[in-house]
Amino acid sequence: MTQKVRVRFAPSPTGPLHIGGVRTALFNYLFAKKHGGDFIIRIEDTDQTRYVDGAEEYIIEALNWLNIPANEGPVSGGNYGPYRQSERKDLYRKYADQLIESGNAYYAFDTSEALDAHRKNHEAEGKTFIYNWHNRLKLDNSLALSEAEVKAKLDSGEEYVIRFKTPQDETLPLTDIVRGAMKIDTNVLDDKVLFKGDGMPTYHLANIVDDHLMEITHVIRGEEWLPSLALHVLLYRAFGWDAPQFAHLPLLMKPVGKGKLSKRDGDKMGFPVFPLEWKTAEGDVFSGYREDGYLPEAVLNMLVFLGWNPGTEQEIFSLEELVAAFDLARVNKSGAKFDPEKTKWFQHHYLQEMDEGMLTAQFKKFLKDKGVTTAVDVSVIVPLLKERATFVQDLWEQGSFFFEAPSTYDEKASKKAFKEDTPEILQKVIELLQGIEDFTATTISDEVKGWITSNDIGFGKVMMPLRLALVGEMKGPDVFEISSILGKKEAVSRIEKAVNFMKQ
RNA sequence: GCUCCAUUAGCAUAGUGGCUAGUGCACCUCACUUUCUAUGAGGAGACAAGGGUUCGAUUCCCUUAUGGAGUACCA
């Protein structure tokens, strides 16, 4: 029996959770649930200078909205806490020391200024400064200095960092579930800082220690971590621990042009890149899927197909179906361009599937928020409008005329529809409507159509101006449905208004 | 620059050593709705390039090109 699957999503609370991060969380969630495992959230806040207020709450709320909550985390708790690295601070030091004792790490006293200077000099010569085997003995660290010198520096309280002593002359084989086998020459790696001058570990140390302590079995993360994989594997080895399995997910790219999707792309191109709306301290607002009216099911379905597919032709998946179908082996290797149009298609689909009573309730709320009061039965018009709606707000877009009589007539359409003989025709229609007792769509339709054919008038001459009179534009459902819902009195009044408008 | 990763139509992708290379979005046409949507039916559109290996390569190998990531006392 293998051990229980435990995966973690480890965001850094430096701002709102990017949609790419949401996908990483989703894949972690699906993998965990598929294998009956646990999904853990861990806040990686080892960089205190980049901490942003509210970011952590945002992350949790976003996952809850999408219905993919964690089993363990800073809010839900668990047996492996604390789940914030800042609260685990005291823990890391001893592991860094352990590495020094075993000869896998060393103290380095080089100041940031000195290292920056080295980098600048190298850059000027077109070279890259790497802190590793080829120069570590020439720099200011415990490998180059005598024991007494090191002790003196340490005792005097001089600031230092702890660096990993990357092994030399080794071809390290790496395995990734998505990419398969890779290998890297350890000589190109640098001696990464594991423990910072401020007493905090870097991501690299903290993530290995925590993943080990939290008994993480699979690390599923973005491709931007692939270059760090060698270091991480080496760290597990240095500690003598079993490494988890790794899976690096392809990046999400902008819809057009080059480069990865960034937070500024969204509002520039008219789609959200965040699950929830986010307001910065400076007052900038980034739109979110939730506030834009997307359903969580649509966002999830869209997201899961970015970099994964089931290998069948099924495209619509409920969360349960995703859990059943998901497989890391079917994750793609190359970056996926984000397609906002496809998102809308999913959204349209899920809106159609939504319970009609629920949709009506949401639309009623929308109307209330807008301050619209009406005698019209909203539950009657929702089914009429819904198939052409992608968002709840589209119902208003499509059917506002049910609640407000048109005050103007679409210019282009009225040129086409309002002709010289139109007032006369509409006047006849008014008389016709007045005479209908059973004011239902079918009866009105029969009466009007019958009248048109028997008088040989031509449908266009009647239907177009009639629609324009009732709606104000060339849109909306069947004109007779509209007439019926508006009621005789209102329908007649709108037609009269149009007649008067034309007479001016 | 260096290291690692990738490359099927505008986008997301399926797939195979030999088939008309499949699907969805978007696009075009028609039908329906005498409007606009939605829907239905059709249609156009792809294996980055060049070398190998092979009886045969989109599929395997190499090179090039393009794209991406990393290259911090950030995650």
The global form is elongated
Helical element count? 20
How many extended strands?
13
- Strand residues, percent: 5-15%
User: What profile does the largest beta sheet have?
Assistant: 3 strands, antiparallel
Distance between the termini: 86 Å
Query: For the residues shown, what is the average pLDDT?
Result: 90
In what order do the strands lie side by side in the largest sheet? Answer: 3-4-7
Helical content stands at 40-55%
Radius of gyration: 33 Å
| Structural class by sheet pairing and helices | mainly alpha
Poorly predicted runs of 5 or more residues:
none
What does this entry look like structurally?
A hairpin with a 3-residue loop joins strand 5 (171-176) and strand 6. Helix 16 (422-434) crosses helix 18 (459-471). By secondary structure, this protein is mainly α. The strands form six sheets. Strands 3-4-7 form a three-stranded antiparallel sheet. It has a two-stranded parallel ribbon with strand order 1-2. The protein has 20 helices and 13 strands. The chain binds one RNA strand of 75 nucleotides through helix 4, strand 6, helix 6, strand 13 and helix 11.
